[in-house]
Specification:
The chain is mainly alpha-helical. The protein is 80% helix and 0% strand. It folds into 2 domains: 57 residues; 95 residues, no CATH class.
């Protein structure tokens, strides 16, 4: 009887170890499945973070663009520079040497800002609506005689692609006749 009891004991041990190995295998597959789900979850989270960072980067770029344009406009709002700007846009031949230098520096600042917007758009950092807004401004200002002349004098200072872009716009829009934005008879 003792040998029969020992045989049952051995069979239980063998069955127990077979059950343990099945359980370990199942645990292994379960842990792999959980790890796979965790990796997928991490990738989704990473994707959301990248998307959020991209939106934030675009917002920062747009804010910088708006600040640059606002500061430029406020600078030109200075009465002395506003007068020079009006004369320059009109292509007024009575610009003094000093006024001409001021005009060219204002244009250089605008062209640099424009090239930056163009390059940001090409790099995917500026969205289409912001770029379209920039292009509308280019089309408006580049239709003036003075702005066209300033571009012709300084185009060589800018990248080949930007020059081609501006020259393409120039070929599409007519030059408007010189006019002032200030109604006749009003100096202030």
């Amino acid at each position: 009887m003792a040998s029969t009891a020992e045989g049952h004991q051995l069979n239980r041990c063998n069955n127990s170890s077979q059950e343990s190995s099945m359980t370990l295998e199942q645990i292994f597959y379960l842990s792999q499945s959980i790890a796979s789900v965790a990796v997928v979850g991490s990738l989704i989270y990473l994707g959301l973070q990248v998307r959020s960072a991209e939106r934030s980067q675009r917002a920062i770029m747009q804010q910088g663009r708006a600040d640059r344009a606002s500061n430029g406009a406020l600078t030109i709002a200075n009465p002395e520079l506003a007068r020079v700007f009006q004369k320059g846009v009109a292509g007024d031949p009575t610009l003094t040497r000093e006024e001409f230098a001021q005009w060219m520096m204002m244009c250089r600042a605008m062209f640099l800002s424009g090239e930056d917007s163009f390059l940001q758009y090409k790099a995917g950092q500026l969205d289409r609506s912001a770029f379209d807004s920039y292009v509308a401004g280019v089309r408006f200002y580049m239709s003036s005689a003075g702005m066209r002349a300033a571009w012709k004098l300084s185009a060589g200072q800018f990248g080949r692609e930007f020059r081609a872009f501006v020259n393409s716009i120039l070929s599409q829009i007519p030059q408007r006749k010189a006019r002032t934005l200030i109604p006749s008879g009003r100096d202030t």
